[in-house]
């Protein structure tokens, strides 16, 4: 079982155990194929963890009814709603009343302080890298403006810049061995550079280890600077 599969299973079980009744039923039935594709090929690729992410998140609408977001990312003051939309959902299969209701629903989310990102199922399936970059751009812009994790982005060394670009484009987390092969550094020097970049909030730990970090991913706040 891969790290993603283990982490995803733990993620779902945590939410299953914390819900009951309609909220549990909605999670089991509403978290379907499109949402699973997004989790695996967009969210996990971008962040490598599920902290602060809530699937099928319940919100109260302006009529005191209950609505569910595909995903909610709630971290400090940020409330980000993420929706995965299939083409059929917004085609001629819905009525004018339903179409208007969807727009009003989104407007009230904005009024209530939510940020919203919407992705089509086709983009998640066929262009996940583009979706990943949009997600990273949003998180980078938000946390950059709120001075969280910005680091010394404008004062990077040549090596740090290249490591950041590598971390953004790589399919797997960056490890000391990767630096050894790329820059011909020794293992100790590679570990020291990665640890320093972690302390500067340029990288975040990837994987399960907390005491001894073995692999790293790019901090979301730095990604916007690179892809912009």
Automatic annotation (TrEMBL):
Domain DUF559 stretches: 68-136
Record-linked Pfam families: DUF559
Protein name stated in the entry: DUF559 domain-containing protein
Organism field: Paenibacillus pectinilyticus
């Amino acid at each position: 079982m891969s790290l993603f599969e283990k982490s995803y299973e733990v993620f779902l079980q945590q939410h299953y155990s914390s819900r009951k009744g309609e909220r549990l039923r909605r999670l089991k039935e509403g978290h379907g194929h499109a949402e699973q594709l997004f989790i695996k090929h967009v969210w996990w690729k971008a962040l490598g963890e599920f902290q602060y992410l809530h699937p099928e998140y319940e919100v109260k609408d302006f009529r005191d009814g209950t609505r569910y977001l595909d995903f909610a990312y709630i971290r400090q003051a940020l409330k980000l709603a993420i929706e995965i939309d299939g083409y059929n959902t917004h085609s001629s299969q819905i009525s004018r009343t339903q179409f208007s209701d969807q727009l009003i629903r989104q407007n009230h989310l904005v009024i209530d302080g939510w940020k919203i990102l919407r992705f089509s199922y086709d983009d998640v399936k066929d262009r996940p890298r583009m979706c990943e970059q949009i997600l990273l751009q949003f998180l980078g812009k938000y946390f950059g403006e709120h001075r969280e994790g910005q680091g010394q982005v404008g004062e990077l060394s040549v090596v740090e810049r290249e490591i950041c670009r590598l971390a953004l484009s790589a399919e797997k987390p960056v490890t000391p061995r990767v630096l050894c092969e790329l820059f011909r550094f020794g293992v100790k020097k590679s570990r020291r550079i990665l640890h320093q970049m972690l302390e500067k909030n340029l990288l975040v730990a990837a994987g399960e280890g907390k005491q001894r970090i073995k692999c790293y991913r790019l901090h979301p706040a730095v990604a916007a600077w690179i892809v912009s």
